[in-house]
Design goal:
Blueprint: E1 3-10, H1 17-25, E2 44-49, E3 54-60, H2 67-74, H3 83-91, H4 94-97, H5 101-112, E4 115-121, H6 128-138, E5 144-149, H7 158-167, E6 174-175, H8 185-196, H9 201-235, E7 238-240, H10 242-246, H11 248-276, H12 290-293, H13 295-301, H14 303-313, E8 323-326, H15 356-364, E9 369-373, H16 375-393, H17 416-422, H18 437-450
Parallel strand pairs: 1-3, 1-4, 4-5, 5-6
Antiparallel strand pairs: 2-3, 7-9, 8-9
Helix pairs in contact: 2-6, 3-5, 8-9, 9-11, 9-16, 9-18, 11-13, 11-16, 14-16, 17-18
Length: 454
């Protein structure tokens, strides 16, 4: 039989209770997050099911809006009562159904659970109402684990809150930023709960292990998505017939269509990474993601970006549009690179033309030439996709605003081995659309190199 644990998530209004639950359960659609006070008006439940038969049931509770008034309404603790008995006596009164309806929902939930996560906005000053809040929670007779939220903020008052909690014998505390969780914060949370609930240590540690395995599995799946996208981009090829090469307009249209196909494959990988990390594609908070605002075009084909990538590749040749000419697969799919680039700017006119190297390739191909992506484009795509994967790993499901890709950017110098693992795909244009044993072998090699990039 599955072992169940119930945890109430409690705290003052707008402390980040629902945000914490979204991050712990990876459910961005759970509850409502708002800067307006009193957003959560009812007790809502969400479950986290581990692969060891353990189920955690989280109860998201309304904020304690008037802890000073509530403490006064509870009255003094009589000699013939325990603190939880005083709470139950209050819940039987008319005030619990009227003036303190929201607070009563919190107290009823606390009496029914195994423990409580007490979420604190560490940016708040330690006021009298919060002292009353801590006293009320301690009166329910259940283990309470304070969770200090927003501790990364410049206005955090973590030390003041720590001192207050220690005064109420709440020495075990967890630092957990629901916007950008610390590495290992979830494990620390469950390990701390296990210390507070010694009889439930085994299931809580099982949950901690499950969460860690899930994190590792997401990391592996993300790198696999990146590997698949890069192999498809490296294998991408568009053959131009002789009559297309002779018509400047058709040649330019072919270049633009090829570039658009590459961009769409990159955007598809971004969407798959969002799905993997349980972030909604349509969230307004994520509107600055590249696939929504068109920045992939700038990232993949902007001349400055490509010039920088080319310099880091050590080529010493001018970088063009990021789309070069390649000889046929019969000659191993060797990319001719920047020297044979068809264009120099995004959406601009073809300026470099077909030089001597390209003409020799055209002769070898009996009048046919093929478009492929330069190494500089593959380098930029690898950097951006891996950076997005790392950024989403570090992003809480309560975060708002743009994803900070720059903070998680991978140094291009560290991607050289990744580029070399992509070269076999140039000889296999079918890998852009089809799986095969040889493609799988190439993906395994590429994935092994991606695992080395942290």
């Amino acid at each position: 039989m599955a072992e169940r644990l119930a945890l109430a998530v409690v705290g003052h209004t707008n402390a980040g209770k629902t945000s914490l639950l979204r991050t712990l359960t990876r459910r961005r659609d759970f509850g409502e997050v708002s800067s307006q006070p009193g957003t959560t008006r009812h007790v809502e439940a969400v479950e986290l099911a581990g692969d060891d038969g353990v189920r955690l049931r989280f109860l998201d509770t309304p904020g304690l809006e008037d802890p000073i008034g509530l403490l006064h309404a509870l009255g003094p603790l009589r000699a013939d009562m325990t603190p939880p008995q005083r709470i139950r006596a209050f819940l039987a009164t008319r005030a619990a159904d009227e003036a303190f309806e929201q607070e009563a929902k919190v107290l009823r939930a606390l009496l029914e659970v195994d423990a409580a996560l007490f979420v604190i906005d560490a940016r708040e000053p330690v006021l009298a109402k919060f002292r009353c809040e801590v006293e009320i929670l301690a009166s329910c007779g259940k283990p309470v684990l304070p969770v200090l939220n927003f501790v990364r903020d410049a206005g955090s008052r973590e030390a003041e809150w720590g001192a207050l909690l220690a005064d109420f014998a709440l020495h075990a505390q967890v630092r957990f930023d629901a916007v950008a969780p610390f590495d290992g914060a979830e494990r620390q949370l469950y390990d701390s709960l296990a210390l507070l609930l010694p009889a439930r240590q085994a299931p809580l540690r099982a949950v901690a292990g499950f969460v860690e395995r899930e994190r590792a599995a997401r990391d592996e799946a993300g790198r696999r998505l990146v590997a698949d996208a890069l192999l498809a981009l490296a294998a991408l090829r568009r053959t131009l017939e002789r009559d297309e090469l002779a018509d400047e307009a058709r040649k330019a249209a072919a270049l633009e269509a090829f570039r658009a196909e590459a961009l769409e494959r990159a955007r598809r990988a971004v969407r798959e990474l969002l799905d993997l990390h349980a972030f909604a594609r349509s969230d307004a908070e994520l509107a600055m993601l590249p696939w929504l605002d068109g920045r992939w075009a700038a990232d993949l084909f902007h001349p400055e970006t490509l010039r920088d990538a080319g310099a880091r590749l050590g080529k010493g040749a001018a970088i063009g549009a990021g789309v070069g000419l390649a000889v046929d697969a019969a000659t191993a799919g060797l990319s001719l690179g920047a020297a044979a680039a068809l264009g120099a700017t995004i959406g601009g006119a073809i300026s470099q033309g077909f030089g001597p190297l390209a003409r020799r390739a055209a002769d070898a191909l009996q009048g046919r030439e093929s478009l492929s992506l330069e190494d500089s484009v593959l380098l930029v795509a690898a950097q951006r996709l891996l950076g997005l994967h790392f950024a989403l790993q570090a992003r809480g499901h309560a975060a708002e605003g743009r994803v900070e890709l720059e903070r998680h950017a991978v140094a291009m110098e560290r991607l050289q081995n990744v580029l070399s693992a992509l070269q076999p795909a140039r000889a296999h244009p079918e890998w852009a659309a089809e799986d095969s044993p040889r493609r799988e072998a190439a993906r395994r090699e590429l994935l092994a190199r991606l695992r080395q990039v942290a």
